[in-house]
Amino acid sequence: MLKPIDAALARSVVRLRVRFYETDLMGIVHHGSYVGYLEVARVEWLRRRGVAYVSWAQRGLHMAVVDLTLRYRAPARFDDEIDVEVALGEWRAATIRFDYRLLRVGDGVLLAEGATRLACVDDKGALKRVHDEMADVLARGEAV
Amino acid sequence: MLKPIDAALARSVVRLRVRFYETDLMGIVHHGSYVGYLEVARVEWLRRRGVAYVSWAQRGLHMAVVDLTLRYRAPARFDDEIDVEVALGEWRAATIRFDYRLLRVGDGVLLAEGATRLACVDDKGALKRVHDEMADVLARGEAV
Amino acid sequence: MLKPIDAALARSVVRLRVRFYETDLMGIVHHGSYVGYLEVARVEWLRRRGVAYVSWAQRGLHMAVVDLTLRYRAPARFDDEIDVEVALGEWRAATIRFDYRLLRVGDGVLLAEGATRLACVDDKGALKRVHDEMADVLARGEAV
Amino acid sequence: MLKPIDAALARSVVRLRVRFYETDLMGIVHHGSYVGYLEVARVEWLRRRGVAYVSWAQRGLHMAVVDLTLRYRAPARFDDEIDVEVALGEWRAATIRFDYRLLRVGDGVLLAEGATRLACVDDKGALKRVHDEMADVLARGEAV
User: Considering the domain D11-123 in this protein, what is its CATH number?
Assistant: First the structure.
């Protein structure tokens, strides 16, 4: 059962900078480092809607990644600034999907696109419905 | 243009053990750590067919990941031994795809499934056709 | 041969936030993650003095870590904001040492102290004297 | 109060292989990756003495790193095999110290030396004395 999403409210842009240790011997950002970028962007998406994800984690409410997709379009390099566009793309009873586009600040080159599907689980890893408090947040836009 | 693949020859199983630092505060393996497991498995897949990938990298022949998919089925934990089944799944003019299944040794639980599409690129990142030397290797089974 | 250092000019404070993937199953930041924090702080220390370290790296001027020391005083946790105090602590012909103190923003708790000694090396890893351009930067304070 | 150590019993050698993602844009192993190598070696040191560290962690017995020192002697590279020599170097009431030497297999080059001091802590991070079960293990050599 899909919940409706307001595309304008559901989108944030999170800026970060490539760290030296995120590169590999090809001289570019290692493809695995992007997984961390998506994670940082999700946490900031929530913070912009008034939620410290850490407070959920402390109460045993986790959003576990169950699916991950990444398409690499152009190499990112050390010290690049990256804008991670993150948007709530799908909202079901027990899972949500975030979609991402990573663009290099400056030249606007599309570096990568991706998606993560997340499931609500408790401390034991048992699947939970999206609880009301979480639902409130998902429907929110960035706080002004 | 697809090249034919002999499924029996194209498959290897690489065993590894979860490291402490690969876990996160949920007490399980962080979803990003699996990207490294796939990479280790690809490198060993080549080694079993007589190729040290490092020797290609030194000559400027890289197999860059252009697509990554991971589906997480059950959490892996610190010190788990994991069998990574890795198989050449598709072979085109300039890209190949490896498919993966990760199973916990002992109970045989399926932990994750995934795929990576790789493109042959040179030191500048320019796309190359799969060169003959590489093609020879891709058609090979594990050395006896 | 030690070069004199102006302690007031030589110090910067770089703020960062703990990422989810930097934690481990003990529920705290993994001790290895601090190595990255020191690196981020060094790169920002240079940027505040007008230098993009990436431009040096592209020209084959590297500051390779030759010694690393870290003392862990209190656990950092996911989403903590950390102020990394970084100061040029010693300046010799071919090596420099940065000293670090990491404090949690908010309660000011000392999380860790550390030091890294760095050697100037070229692309082949051969030791170089601190070149004049680098020396200029090391003597500078933060740009106003 | 120092406990006596039998140097011959206290030493193990753990072999591992450098992973691609452990390198950086200098083309060598990133200095932070060595922290993981020491950790892997400690876990194997315990396993060779009959202990799965994971079983301690599950019961809330942790050996937290409180001090870390690394001296980098020569660069390690992708796919290098490394022998990590790990020895119990000091044993006090509530802390122990492991000493490490990392040598490249093949040419025997010393890549790095290091030490970690570890404190016994419970799930809350409170300091504990080395418990008897742990003490038994520390006094043991490798199982035959």
Answer: 3.10.129.10
